[in-house]
């Protein structure tokens, strides 16, 4: 399986028709006044191309979060990849995903990474930089 794209956003959803909607796409950094920083809501979303020979099988996606020093965060999500072959379509199907995360705690400043795995194999990642804001800056968490 091939990751076509992935991103962090303020909100993302995949409808029954397979179309993705997102707000705040490209969320790649957060500023916070203190650590640990708690992000009340965000999403990790993306799209995977599924080779035709892999359509008919049980597959699982896992999202893991790693901190700046490579330490694994307790956040870990796993869910099924559901793709069906469509009669007469020769193009490999795509599977879109959007995962809503609430109250994610970032304990330290730096580059955090959401690693995306299917059947235990990493297919990509999305970085999120969490920084301490300067005293005069506004920020969001």
Description:
It is a single chain. The strands form three sheets. The chain has a five-stranded mixed sheet with strand order 4-10-9-6-7, with no helix packed on it. The protein has a three-stranded antiparallel sheet with strand order 1-5-8, with no helix packed on it. Strands 2-3 form a two-stranded antiparallel sheet. Helices cover about 0% and strands about 60% of the residues. The protein has a single domain (about 1-130), classed as Immunoglobulin-like (Sandwich). By secondary structure, it is mostly beta strands. The protein has strands at about 1-10, 10-15, 20-25, 30, 35-50, 60-65, 70-80, 95-105, 110-120, 120-130. The protein contains no helices and ten strands.
What labels would you give this structure?
single chain; Immunoglobulin-like; elongated; three-stranded antiparallel β-sheet; 141 residues; 10 strands; mainly beta
Short recap of the structure:
This protein is mainly β and 141 residues long. 0% of the residues lie in helices and 60% in strands.
Element layout with pairings:
Blueprint: E1 2-9, E2 11-14, E3 20-23, E4 29-32, E5 37-49, E6 59-66, E7 72-81, E8 94-106, E9 110-118, E10 121-132
Parallel strand pairs: 4-10
Antiparallel strand pairs: 1-5, 2-3, 5-8, 6-7, 6-9, 9-10
């Amino acid at each position: 399986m091939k990751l076509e794209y992935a991103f962090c956003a303020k909100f993302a959803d995949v409808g029954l028709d397979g179309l993705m909607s997102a707000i705040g796409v490209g969320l790649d950094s957060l500023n916070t006044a203190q650590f640990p920083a708690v992000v009340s809501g965000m999403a990790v979303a993306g799209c995977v191309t599924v080779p035709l020979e892999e359509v008919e099988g049980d597959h699982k996606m896992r999202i893991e979060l790693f901190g700046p020093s490579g330490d694994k965060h307790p956040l870990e999500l796993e869910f099924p990849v559901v793709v069906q072959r469509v009669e007469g379509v020769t193009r490999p199907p795509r599977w879109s995903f959007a995962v809503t995360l609430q109250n994610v705690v970032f304990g330290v400043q730096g580059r955090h990474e959401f690693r995306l795995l299917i059947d235990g194999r990493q297919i990509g990642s999305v970085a999120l930089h969490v920084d301490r804001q300067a005293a005069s800056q506004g920020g969001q968490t």
